[in-house]
Amino acid sequence: MLDNMIFKQLMKHSFTIPVEVTYPNGKTEKYGNGAPQVKIKVNEKIPVKDLLRNASITLGEAYMDKKIEVSGSLQVLINSAYESANSFLNNNKFKRFLPKQSHSEESSKNDVQSHYDLGNDFYKLWLDKTMTYSCAYFEKPDDTLEEAQMNKVHHILKKLDPKPGSSLLDIGCGWGTLMLTAAREYNMNVVGITLSEEQYNAVKQRIKDEGLEDQAEVLLEDYRELDHLPFDYITSVGMFEHVGEENLGEYFNTISRYLKSNGVALIHGITRQQGGAYNGWINKYIFPGGYVPGLNENLTHIIESGMQVADIEMLRRHYQRTLEMWTDNFHKVLPEVRKMHDERFIRMWDLYLQACAASFESGNIDVIQCLISKGPSARTLPMTRDYMYKD
Question: Quick one: average pLDDT of 214-237?
Answer without folding.
Answer: 94
